[in-house]
């Protein structure tokens, strides 16, 4: 789209030319993913047959419009997201223009991934938990719904993921998705009850638990499984990404433990 992105060790994504004006928003390019991200789609086409031979499904994903907007406006990770919230509330028309562009790009990107061979899609809204329910409904929900409606044309399962969303769960479900991701800030069974068992649920072990000794990690994983109570539609997962210091042996043991506890279901 014209943003200069760098992934910096220890800091994460940095944008060297963050959005600061209406002209910056208008300058953002909206091009077909087959042109701008052809290399990603080709990678999906290449890896899908090998994964199929191993019985491993291929998951496509994209950052959601709000999370991408926050990086584009803040220039990187933020604690309070002041620039993002200021644009929403002080220049709502410009915010809508930015979110329209991002939702068009993200929806098309997810759809293209599925058509290239991804068997399920995940929409990542890592930072949307900084918003109130009122702000989410007004400034984010229409664009998340727009993305999911576009991706839905591929007829593959869609997961809608966020963190810090205990106050937004019903709104995330309203935006759409066959499964909703939840983090460790709410008990899994309580979250599922609020969402209803008509949707799948993904989560919700605290990533920090992987740094604990194995007996404690096993106990915490079992708590999540107990809350799921063996219902169909639970995708065991962390409540967010792996921490850099995660011991890989703990991760391997956790995967094996969950598979064994689920009777071999994956």
Word description of this protein:
- By secondary structure, this protein is of the alpha/beta class.
- Helices cover 50% and strands 14% of the residues.
- The protein has helices at 22-27, 33-36, 38-54, 65-74, 82-90, 92-116, 133-139, 141-151, 169-175, 188-195, 214-228, 248-261, and strands spanning 5-8, 12-15, 59-63, 120-125, 158-162, 179-181, 200-205, 234-238.
- It has a six-stranded parallel beta sheet with strand order 3-4-5-6-7-8. A two-stranded antiparallel sheet has the order 1-2.
- It is globular.
- The two termini are 37 Å apart.
SSE pattern, N- to C-terminal: EEHHHEHHHEHHEHEHEHEH
Strand tally is 8
Main pleated-sheet profile: 6 strands, parallel
- Determine the fraction of residues in helical runs and give it as a percent range: 40-55%
Distance separating the two termini: 37 Å
Strand content: 5-15%
Global morphology: globular
Low-confidence stretches: none
- For the largest sheet, list the strands in their spatial order: 3-4-5-6-7-8
Oligomer: single chain
Structural class: alpha/beta
Average of the residue pLDDT scores: 95
Radius of gyration: 19 Å
């Amino acid at each position: 789209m014209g943003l200069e992105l760098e992934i910096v060790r220890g800091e994460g994504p940095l944008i060297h030319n963050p959005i600061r004006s209406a002209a910056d928003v208008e300058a953002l390019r909206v091009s077909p993913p087959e042109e701008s991200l052809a290399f990603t789609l080709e990678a999906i086409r290449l890896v899908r047959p090998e994964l199929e031979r191993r019985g491993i499904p291929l998951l496509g994903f994209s950052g959601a419009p709000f999370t991408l907007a926050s990086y584009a406006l803040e220039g990187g990770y933020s604690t309070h997201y002041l620039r993002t919230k200021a644009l929403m509330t002080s220049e709502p028309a410009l915010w809508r223009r930015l979110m329209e562009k991002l939702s068009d790009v993200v929806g098309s990107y997810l759809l293209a991934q599925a058509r290239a061979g991804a068997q399920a899609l995940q929409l990542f809204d890592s930072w949307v938990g900084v918003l109130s329910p009122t702000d989410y409904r007004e400034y984010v929900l229409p664009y998340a719904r727009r993305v999911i409606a576009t991706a839905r044309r591929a007829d593959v399962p869609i997961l809608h993921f966020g963190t810090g969303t205990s106050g937004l769960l019903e709104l995330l479900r309203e935006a759409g998705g066959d499964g909703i991701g939840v983090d460790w800030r709410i008990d899994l069974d309580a979250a599922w009850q609020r969402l209803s068992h008509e949707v799948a649920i993904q989560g919700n072990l605290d990533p920090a638990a992987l740094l604990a000794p194995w007996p404690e990690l096993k106990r915490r994983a079992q708590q999540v499984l107990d809350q799921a109570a063996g219902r169909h539609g639970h995708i065991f997962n962390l409540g967010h990404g792996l921490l850099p210091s995660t011991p890989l042996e703990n991760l391997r043991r956790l995967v094996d433990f969950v598979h064994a506890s689920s009777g071999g279901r994956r």
